[in-house]
Amino acid sequence: MSPLGITLLMLAGFAGFAWLSWRKLAIVVRLQPEVRWDHPAARLKAVLVNGFLQQRMIARDWKPGLMHAVIFLGFMALLLRKLQLIAIGYHEPFVYPGLAGGLFARLIVVSTRGLPDRFSQWRRSHPFRFAAACALGVALIGLATGGATAGAGYVPTRALLEGQADLPGVYTILKFCATWLSAWTGVPAGVFAPSLAIGAGIGNDVALLTGGGQEAAIPLIALGMAGFLAATTGGPITAFIIVMEMVSGQAMVLSLMACSLLSSGVARLVTKPMYQELADLLPVPPAPRPPQPVTAP
């Protein structure tokens, strides 16, 4: 269907939805007015935390709450996919920048902080056993991918940029899971280099879905690296400068900059910068008391 047909269908759908909504809202309009625009930042955060992440449901009773959250997020994923398909009708290579990195950062922070669920309780009561179970999961993922997800991801990322990678189709999601499990153990490690590997995998997947060749895939891989790293760390300037230097992409500086800034902005709708939230979890020692003056006898 042409973009004109898509626009006409959307306008007809919006008009029908607006008419039905106005019939419902006409009752609310007659009620006593209430100020609902004060503290917009706090209201938006409450909507994101309790609406999209279902934190209140999970905190109340984690089993049905988690089931409700998974079902809700499934419907949200379908909605986002529908919106993406509409955008693809106008611009075929369209993808959502920033959402994957923001969700990854939020997952790392929530896992580190812990929830009132069985896994978090096991992590607190038996940290070594929990770390061993996570390590076993990472090892199984590495075996399933032939070692592609092992380590920081330097070798697969370089192979993708050189157009010589022979990775399984599920490499990106399994690298995502392996990095999350590694961070969940609590063992000191970093997510900086793995974020570049995951972003490269996302860019390569987009190139495969759009049918681009190896030459066309390299810019998408670089954009994926910059976007995912900026969304995960909340540092767009750092992200696009590092990726630009890695791929010698001076000609792509504006594209990398725009992708990094947009990804970081979208990720801020999901979570705060990951390093800031992780730093807030660290125990802060109390400030030393000033010495008492000694008085002469």
Structure, explained:
The protein folds into two domains: 57 residues, no CATH class; 184 residues, Clc chloride channel. The mean pLDDT is 76. It is mainly alpha-helical and 297 residues long. 71% of the residues lie in helices and 0% in strands. The radius of gyration is 23 Å and the shape is globular. Helix 8 runs parallel beside helix 10 and helix 11 packs antiparallel against helix 12.
Please work out how many helical segments DSSP would assign: 14
Total beta strands = 0
- Give the overall shape, derived from the CA principal axes: globular
Mean pLDDT: 76
Distance between the termini: 95 Å
CATH superfamily of the largest domain: Clc chloride channel
Order of helices and strands: HHHHHHHHHHHHHH
Structural category is: mainly alpha
CATH architecture of the largest domain: Orthogonal Bundle
Please name the CATH topology of the largest domain. Answer: Clc chloride channel
